[in-house]
Amino acid sequence: MATSTQRASQLTLADLKGKVDPDWCPGCGDFGVLAAVQKALVELQIAPHTVVTISGIGCSSNFPGYVNTYGMHTLHGRALAVATGLKLANHDLTVLVTGGDGDGFGIGGNHFVHSMRRNVDLLYIVMDNQIYGLTTGQTSPTSRVGMKTKSMPFGSVEAPINPISLALAAGATFVARGFSGEQKHLTELIKQGIKHPGFSFLDVFSPCVTYNHDNTYQWFRPRVKKLEDDSDYDSSDWKAAIEKSLLWGEEIPIGKFFERTDVPTLHGAEPVLDEGPLVHRDLKVAPDIARSFIEELM
Amino acid sequence: MKQTFAIGIGGAAGQGVATPGDIFAKIFSRRGLNLNAYNAYQSIIRGGHTFLTIRTGPEKVTNMGDRIDLLIPLNQDSMDRHLKLLTSGAACIYNAETIKPASAADGVQLCPLPVSELADIARNKVAQNTLAIGAGLHMMGIGFQALEDVLKEQFKKKGDAVVAENVSVARAGYDYAAAHFTAFPHPLPKTGNRYAILSGNIAMAMGGAAAGVKFYCAYPMSPSTGVLHWMAAHARKAGIMVRQVEDEIGVINMAIGAAHAGVRAMCATSGGGFALMSEGLGMSAMIETPVVVINCQRAGPSTGVPTKTEQGDLWQMLGAAFGDYPRLIAAPLDIGDCFKVIPEMFNLVDRFQCPGLLLCDLLLSEGRLSVNPEDLDFNPTIDRGELITAEGDGEAAASGTNGDYKRYRITESGISPRAVPGVPGHVHTVATDEHEEDGVLISDEFTNPIKRRAMMEKRMRKVAGIEAAVSPPALRGSRDADVTLIGWGSTKGVIEEACEILNEQGISANQLQIRWIVPLHGEAILKILNNCRHTIIVENNYSGQFARYLRSETSFVPNGYIRKYDGEPFMPHHIVDAVKAQLAGDTELSVPMHEIMV
Questions:
Q1: Smallest Cα–Cα separation from B485: which of B550, B575, B418?
Q2: Which residues of A touch B237 (CB under 8 A)?
Q3: Band (B528; pLDDT cuts 50, 70, 90)
Q4: Is A227 part of a structural domain of the chain?
Q5: B254, B440, B445: which to substitute to probe chain A, counting the most A Cβ within 10 Å?
Q6: A93: nearest CA in chain B?
Q7: Of B238, B261, B432, Cβ closest to residue A75
Q8: Is the bond preceding B417 in cis, omega lying within 30 degrees of 0?
Q9: Per the CB 3.0–4.6 Å rule, which of A244, B119, B161, B581 could disulfide with B586?
Q10: Strand B5-13 to B70-73 pairing
């Protein structure tokens, strides 16, 4: 998504520290995502008061409280809908949406799909730990078949969602995957996602050290392969991205799967916004226009 | 008794019931006549039965009335359903070649049109409709020019040939009536007034534009969709961002997101969609971001009767979202009020930073009324409350740098100055979890019984302010009447007319119509009702939802109830007959039968 033109003077990591410290379990993957977001904002030098971080509900959705930007901790699954309204009312703001796999792909699945086809200009980071953590360990939409949890003690029989393929199919214009254990790489993806004009989807493997004993740091480390290391990979090729998105198992690609910048953003496609953000507009309808509305009825 | 004249046009959906209705409406309003139109229809795009009632007259017309003066059935089914309800003095114009009348009451004039002799029906499929309009107009004593002008406008886009064809067919009908039918005894007069004709949905949409709404979103749902249609069609001129969203959950959350950024945001739906919005309303209350939600009630529960009216969502509105929180609920009294109430509601929700709900219904949403254009005020007072949209606004300067600003500062009024994202020096996070004054969240970890209590009390202190900001209802009519009729929202017009009829018949009646559901002003209502002789609550639902609410707030129990839950609105005689039965001691609960089979 596009960055604000307002820049802070010498923004440092300390400026982005939230009022309270995270209450995540020690070792939680979400710490890495928080650090990467803060680094990305510092590297891009975006003034915190021009950024709004919006989340739903869940462990990772506590995120806005830990970063010193404007924040909204909304309802379970609804962050993208709230973010869309906010962005359309003031498109000068940089909007980050953060949440988990249950929040985004389960209860919020409908908004996820529609936000992508609308190409709302924001960065959506999903801290994907393939489990429900805050409710103490139930199967999530990305839990693998066979995974045993409190809600499916004999193993899940449902196929998981493939967030990357889904995002590509739904029309997301920037689709990437990161790993909380790959800080530098993740920070780079966040920066790219913030700068991308349109809907940027970033799925991040963010291991749950308490409830998911299958998809651990140790499990991911040997499997993740950076797309950026493959010089033949062309991230403007949608079909190639779909193919890569299907890879899972011994080799799991991370990095930027796909990006296109030729699709207008939602706010860019609406002539109503040509005169600038709605929030700065006069509330009154011009008298001649008001008269014309009434004349139509006479 | 005041002069009114009602036309009933019946046919199948798709047969063109709307066009003659629109043409008559335009002719009446340009004569300076008042008008009320109500379309009884079904959830079907082609077929079924649709019955449009247009009632007009030189004085105020607030409802569909009790009688049809002119029936225009466009098919046999409509003839069979409605002819038998006509009474002496009425007339029925119909296509003599396709429709056969059954027996009619004495004094009803049957006016058969030899359609194929008067028009080329191979070329003009709706010739029977146009002929009937022409014939009807003559019988009402209105000159042909009025019709010619409207037809020219109506068909302008289709070219001169189509205009000429329609004018000549209408003329043929007009002339045929002059030669063969007896005109109505009281020609419709002309006055110097000019009216706008609009539906409640258009009124609410325009009221939104007048209030400065900059963001409107919705999911299509009858009978609220008209608000979306007006907003979408006028968005660019009015500078409003209009979105159609994937579901009503998305709608309320998107609207709150926009409102949180600092614009006035509104959305509309019906009962089912409103149910989905419930959790979102709680968020609006908890993060103290104002939003206005319209519920155009239809007959429930569940999908219910999508095209029929009811006042059955009162308790859903009262109980929407869990937990205690301040809210406002208004039930507009008529279509003009649908416009007026929106800027009022926005000023209140901006001041008190809470959700504002409008309890409308199909009767107002899709009904049409003539409104004095002066009453459509696009320059209303705008009060955005304690809003900080730029550095240095209000108390902003004093609140200093990041971290010192307290979004939820505990105040005597319960209202905390609200900074919107983008304002320097006020960075904060809002949370649907309970939070501290500065917004720090995460439910139980950062709160405790003392903090929770303080924050609950802060929010709930706004209730007293809201109560003081809204005026209590007043009694209409003579203080010592025999009977007091209590209604709420859209029943205002029909109860008013029932009172007039009762007064004419020697039973003095007055009316207490409730516009504000929350705040209710229970004490003021009690003061009024305790001095009334015989009280009856009139409402369009099964269980007496308002009666139960009034009782829960005031312990007041009326003498009787008049309820209707068949999907159709009250007609004046339903209320008049029920009042007489109740005053005679026959019953305490009347459920009038809707005689018209629509």
A1: B575
A2: 289, 292-293
A3: very high
A4: yes
A5: B254
A6: B422
A7: B432
A8: no
A9: B581
A10: parallel
**Three-state secondary structure readout of B363-400:** HHHHCEEEECHHHCCCCCCCCCCCEECCCCCCCHHHHC
List of chain A residues whose C-beta atoms are within 8 Å of the C-beta of residue B212: 283-284
pLDDT score of B391: 63
**Chain pair A-B, CB pairs under 8 angstroms:** 213
Boundaries of every domain in chain B: 5-180, 200-375, 387-467, 475-590
Q: Helix H segments across B212-247?
A: 225-238
**pLDDT tens for residues B532-557?**
999 999 999 999 999 999 999 999 99
Q: Is residue B253 within 8 angstroms of chain A, CB to CB?
A: yes
Read off the CATH number of the domain in which A32 is found.
3.40.50.970
Residue-range definition of the domain harbouring residue A185: 13-269
Interface of B with A in 337-396 (CB under 8 A): 373, 376, 378-379, 382, 389
DSSP B77: H
Is there a contact between A285 and B279 if contact means CB atoms under 8 Å apart? Answer: no
B5-180 and B200-375 in the same fold: no
The answer for residues whose C-beta is within 8 angstroms of residue A43's C-beta and 6 or more apart is: A187, A191
| Chain A contact set for B238 (CB, 8 A) | 285, 289, 293
- What count of residues does chain B have? 598
Q: Determine the Cα–Cα distance for residues A200 and A173; give it in Å rounded to an integer.
A: 6
Complex ipTM? 0.97
How many C-beta atoms lie closer than 10 Å to residue A184's C-beta?
9
Dihedral of the alpha carbons of B15, B18, B19, B21, in degrees to the nearest 10 = 130
The pLDDT, as a whole number, for residue B443 is 59
B positions 543-562 inside 8 Å of A (CB): none
Pick the residue from chain A with its C-alpha nearest to B442: A62
Closest residue to A293, CB basis, from B194, B206, B442: B206
Cβ within 8 Å, pair B260-A290: no
Residue B399 has pLDDT above 80, yes or no: no
How far apart, in Å, do the first and last CA atoms of chain B sit?
28
> What architecture is domain B5-180?
3-Layer(aba) Sandwich (3.40)
The structural architecture, per CATH, of the domain B475-590 is: 3-Layer(aba) Sandwich (3.40)
A54 within a domain of the structure (yes/no)? yes
DSSP string, B528-572: HHTT-SSEEEEESSSS-HHHHHHHHHH----SEEEE--SSSPP-H
Cβ–Cβ contact B276 with A under 8 A: no
pLDDT at residue A241 above 80? yes
Q: What is the pLDDT of residue A7?
A: 47
Chain B residue closest to A90 (CA)?
A: B261
For tokens 């008001």, name the residue: A290
Band of pLDDT at residue B598, cut at 50, 70 and 90: confident
Per-residue confidence at B43, pLDDT binned at 50, 70, 90? confident
What pairs with residue B242 in β-bridges? B216
CA distances from A73 to A107, B30, B193, B446 (A): 16, 54, 54, 15
* Helix (H) or strand (E) run with residue A191 in it: helix A183-195
> Side chain identity at B343, as an amino acid letter?
P
In a domain, A138, yes or no: yes
Q: Number of structural domains, chain A?
A: 1
Q: What is the number of residues in chain A?
A: 298
- Write the burial class of residue A22 (CB in 10 Å: 0-12 exposed, 13-18 middle, 19+ buried): middle
Distance from CA of B246 to the nearest CA of A (A): 7
Pick from A19, A270, A283: which is nearest to B382 by CB?
A283
Distance from CA of B253 to the nearest CA of A (A): 5
User: B200-375: what fold?
Assistant: Rossmann fold (3.40.50)
Per the CB < 8 Å rule, is A72 touching B235? no
Pairing outcome for strands B368-371 and B196-199:
antiparallel
